[in-house]
Amino acid sequence: MTSSIAVEVLPHTSASLLKDIIEPARTALLLIDVQVDFVSPEGVIGMAGVDMSSITSAIDKMETLRAAAKAQGATVAFLRVVTREETDSDALKNLYEWRGRPGQHAICRADEPGSDYFRLFPEEGDIDVEKALFDGFFGTDLEEQLRARGIDTLLVAGVTTDCCVDQTARSAFHRNFNVVVVSDACAAYEELLHFGGLLALEKNCALLADTEAVLATWGDAPDRD
After folding, report:
1. How many CA atoms lie within 13 A of 156 on its CB side?
2. Which of 5, 63, 134, 146 could form an S-S bond across to 151 if both were Cys, CB 3.0 to 4.6 Å?
3. CATH number at residue 44
4. Residue 191 is inside which H or E element, if any?
5. Would 109 be classed as within a structural domain?
6. Which residue range(s) make up the domain with 29?
7. 209: Cβ–Cβ under 8 A, 6 or more apart, which residues?
8. Torsion angles phi and psi, residue 156, rounded to 5
9. Could you say which DSSP state residue 3 is in?
10. Is residue 224 pLDDT above 80, yes or no?
11. End-to-end CA distance of the chain
């Protein structure tokens, strides 16, 4: 589905400002929940008939960002949801029960293909973190791993903009990380949730940038047609 909201309306940060913010030695690229159940046509969401075109476009941008981060020596961190019946919270199960969808919270189950990464996979030297819910910091050692590498700035990309991207970005800000959300390297299943999520993050705790600005900052800007 083609977006009817022009990306230009978003308050993006310029490449000239980014240059002072995303110095590669202090920056980590977070790639959030690029997993079969969330982004693959064969996953739970795709099999339900959800339009995945915006997700596919965002993954294309994530691949470009990952290559640029590697070339610049920036840290790359993968986050993924891995759920288990014994760690499903009562609040989560109650929420789905009250919505009339009991059991539908059981997604990205451990040891099932749906929890696997899709198209983008951790490489040697990358951070790889499993989380039980939305916030990549809650109940994980993500902060400790980032601090150990001298990271104070995060480029955030992934799915979905309104859920795990949002909650991880907010949590990072509360932990005193500088946060830059890469708008075209994030996606949601509904256009309004994507743009609303980005606007809320920019208003409260993050800068917005697009992939082109990041590449320009790191000296690898793509040619325009």
Report:
1. 33
2. 146
3. 3.40.50.850
4. helix 191-204
5. yes
6. 11-217
7. 12, 13, 18, 155, 180, 181, 182, 183
8. -110, 130
9. -
10. no
11. 22
Six-digit token string for 25 = 């030695």
Indicate whether 222 belongs to any domain: no
Beta strands in the chain (DSSP E): 27-32, 75-81, 127-131, 153-159, 178-187, 207-209
Confidence of residue 35 (pLDDT cuts 50, 70, 90): very high
Query: In the β-sheet with 178-187, what is the strand arrangement from edge to edge?
Result: 127-131, 75-81, 27-32, 153-159, 178-187, 207-209
Beta-bridge partner residues of 78: 31, 128
The per-residue pLDDT for range 114-161, each reduced to its tens digit, is: 999 999 999 999 999 999 999 999 999 999 999 999 999 999 999 999
**One-letter amino acid of 154:** L
pLDDT on residue 221? 43
Query: CB of 128 within 8 A of CB of 78?
Result: yes
pLDDT value at residue 139 = 95
Tally the C-alpha atoms within 13 A of residue 128's C-alpha that lie toward its C-beta. Answer: 11
The string of pLDDT tens digits covering residues 74-116 is 999 999 999 988 888 888 888 878 888 756 667 889 989 999 9
Q: Name residue 22's amino acid.
A: I
**138 within domain boundaries:** yes
Q: Taking the model in full, what pTM does it have?
A: 0.91
Whether 223 maps to a domain, the answer reads no
